[in-house]
Amino acid sequence: MNTASNATHAVLATGTAVRVKNSPPEIHCRTPYYLRGVPGQVDTLVGRFRDPSLLAFNKPGLPMRYLYRVRFKQKDIWPDYAGSPADTLVADIFEHWLDVLKEPAHERA
Amino acid sequence: MSAPDQHSHDHHDHDHDHDHAHPHAPIEDVDDPQRYEYVLETAIRELLIEKGVLTAAAIHRQIDLQDSRTPAMGAKVVARAWTDPAFKARLIAEPLETIIDEFKLEIVTPLKLVVLENTPDVHNVVVCTLCSCYPRMLLGIPPAWYKSIDYRSRVVVEPRKVLEEFGTVLSPEIEVRVSDSTADLRYLVLPNRPAGTEGFSEEQLAALVTRDAMIGTALV
Lengths: 109, 220
Known about the structure:
The structure holds 2 protein chains of 2 kinds.
Chain A: E1 17-20, E2 39-49, H1 52-55, E3 65-73, H2 74-77, E4 88-94, E5 98-102
Antiparallel strand pairs in A: 1-2, 1-5, 2-3, 3-4
Chain B: H1 3-12, H2 36-50, H3 56-68, H4 71-83, H5 85-93, H6 95-103, E1 112-117, E2 122-127, H7 136-139, H8 144-147, H9 149-154, H10 159-165, E3 175-180, E4 185-190, H11 202-206, H12 211-215
Parallel strand pairs in B: 1-4, 2-3
């Protein structure tokens, strides 16, 4: 059921390059399908919340999961995006749906 | 009620029959008491009352509380943020706690409110692509278009085109930042204060702030 749940990692810093896992669809996982497999950057750590994929089955939703605001470039989501290259999208993604691509470099402000 | 129950209620109160944009006010369903969702809601509500889980009075109190929340409350918050920098700083750091403390509101929710501040370089707009998540605790019931498939599917793909349909045209230098309210966060956009309002009182400023400006589909 909870296919993406085993890969929890340390708390991710703002700026960490991540990719949303392209796991099979779950019932009520709150990870939108259009973001599966898309690379982005951690914007902020929001806190810990109950796991919606477990709550959906009337379970307590534990362990609590870190939730991040993750920012994506529109061009990375939609290759044919016709708006400005400056445009972005931010979604709330749980930790167990994120693969880490690269830690933020120290020289970057 | 436990937190998980509140959580799932919040996600599940979207309106399945209003999945398209209406140029007019949505037609209420009170004339069709046989509708499936209507029968289901009545059955569950009556069972909960019969089994002593809820009382009719508690349900009506919640309805009254929900009805008492309107965009006017959000407009007051925005106007104060425009006039009081210390309040704005606290609002952005701890939105719900600050609003409850400052305006003496009764808001109980497991959800977290996030304030998205527009700047000259960034314009925020909010959607819930998965259902109809909305900062109800502050703004009340969302407009029908916010719940429509049309808005939810298009604003993430072609936000500038959708904004134009709301009369909001933004320069390509401005970053349009769509926030998809996918989990436990609810978003309030803090619009830019319009030029020429320097002498305005907080009340005058609040009168300028529309619901759509706090969703991000309009400017003030």
